[in-house]
Write a structure and sequence with these properties.
By secondary structure, the chain is mainly β. It is built from 8 helices and 34 strands. It is elongated and about 110 Å long.
Length: 429
């Protein structure tokens, strides 16, 4: 009787749907398997024995207990775990991610990773540890053919050596689609990799070989497998493999690390068994959003174009180019500040309407304006051959057309000269 009631209770308990998640960043999910920690970049979480666990068995670490009566659970971007039941929803825990040094290479172990080295624990959203995203269904549903002998092999990258798959009567599906070609075009100027010899035996078995650079600059808001690596794979699998989503491109000026563990996880979700995945090259790829260089001369020319007249650029210490996001560049003169015969001009650079940075350009007037008036006391420089005499005098006449100033000295002598860039009236005797 008791067993019958127990069976009825279990049968009536609502099933809790699994939740697929992935880490977008440098962190790893943590699980306990046979008393030891194992790690993953992606996982399908479910409830086993009242605790959150991977559908493959290992329990989430730290342990999260799911109360009776729970009908569902969710994981937010910051790792918060919430449950629903009885018409209510509440938060019960938060994920803790592991971060390791860049030199550590994760080791595949029965669907998870082993990390040898110092591990730092952080919560999602802190620094570069990353955030939690839902794993995309499309990545799990990509079919992988198990009949490789009649397939040709395609190397997706580097772009300049993109190979068109060979076709035959037995194989007429070997041509990459437009999506892959677009990926190639976007990265052809930034991806620079050495020629790598593919593992033909692996590829003939339906496997995939990935070769990684250490750094890569990309455009677009999504990081795709084909943008950051050389991909060796059978022809019919090339488009889907190259288009695998590895996460969001970081903001300009911020690097994002894509490591082997994440790449392996994405390939496994796409249907490649662990023993048919080979990754060579760097331990991880440092991904940056592609930018453009704005030279100091461009700022200077913008200042000269705005001020115009007889101004010239004052020689300044050479400044390096400004690294800015890609887009339409416009310059705006924000401020002009006269300083004697010099003019300080603040020029800002804008990309697609957004202010990026500014620089101050110093100009001088090759023909200084007459800023004196009758009655002013000025410095007078009288030059006669190799002799120069400095004195003071009072302005008695200003001739704008001739650009001359007549000055009466303390001895009553009137001398006519021209203003210089330092404000002195210079007379040639």
């Amino acid at each position: 009787m008791i067993s019958t009631l127990l069976t009825l209770c279990l049968a009536s308990a609502p099933a809790i749907s699994p939740v697929s998640i992935r880490v977008e960043g440098e962190g790893y999910l943590r699980f306990v398997r046979e008393g030891s920690l194992v790690y993953a970049k992606e996982a399908i979480l479910t409830v086993k024995g009242g605790k959150l666990a991977s559908v493959e068995g290992p329990v989430l670490a730290p342990s999260v207990t799911i109360p009776d009566g729970t009908t569902g659970f969710s994981v937010s971007m910051d790792g918060s775990i919430s449950i629903t039941g009885g018409g209510q929803s509440r938060e019960i825990a938060r994920l803790v991610l592991a971060v390791v040094d860049e030199s550590v290479r994760p080791v595949e172990s029965r669907g998870f990773f082993l990390l040898e080295g110092k591990v730092t624990l952080s919560e999602p959203g802190e620094g570069l540890v990353g955030i939690i995203r839902p794993a995309k269904k499309s990545d799990r549903d990509v079919s992988v053919s198990r009949e490789p002998e009649e397939q040709s092999v395609v190397r997706i990258y580097p772009p300049e050596s993109l190979e068109k798959p060979k076709t035959s009567p037995e194989n007429s599906q070997g041509k990459p689609n437009d999506q892959v070609n677009q990926i190639v075009e976007k990265t052809q100027n930034s991806l620079s990799l050495t020629d790598v010899r593919p593992d033909l035996a692996l590829l003939q078995k339906g496997g995939v070989q990935i070769h990684l650079p250490s750094t890569i600059d990309i455009e677009g808001d999504t990081i795709l497998m084909g943008q950051i690596s050389q991909v060796f794979v059978q022809a019919e699998k090339a488009p889907a493999t190259a288009a695998l989503d590895l996460g969001t491109t970081p903001p300009f000026g911020v690097d994002r690390l894509i490591d082997r563990a994440l790449i392996t996880a994405r390939l496994r979700r796409a249907g490649f068994p662990p023993d048919q995945i080979v990754i060579t090259g760097a331990a991880s790829v440092r991904v940056r959003r592609a930018g453009q260089l704005i030279t100091h001369d461009q700022f200077a020319q913008a200042a000269l174009a705005k001020v115009g007249g007889t101004h010239q650029l004052v020689e300044q210490v050479s400044q390096p180019p400004l690294n800015a996001p890609k887009g339409q560049v416009e310059f705006l003169v924000e401020r002009t500040a006269p300083n004697g015969a010099l003019l300080h001009v603040t020029v800002s650079a804008h990309v697609d309407g957004r202010r990026i940075n500014s620089r101050t350009i110093i100009l001088k007037d090759s023909q200084p304006t007459l800023q004196v008036k009758v009655g002013d006391t000025v410095d007078l420089r009288v030059k006669s051959g190799s002799v120069t005499v400095m004195t003071k005098g009072r302005v008695t006449k200003v001739d704008p057309q001739a650009r001359t100033v007549t000055v009466r000295t303390s001895f009553g002598t009137e001398l006519t000269g021209k203003p210089t860039t330092d404000g002195t009236i210079e007379v040639q005797a």
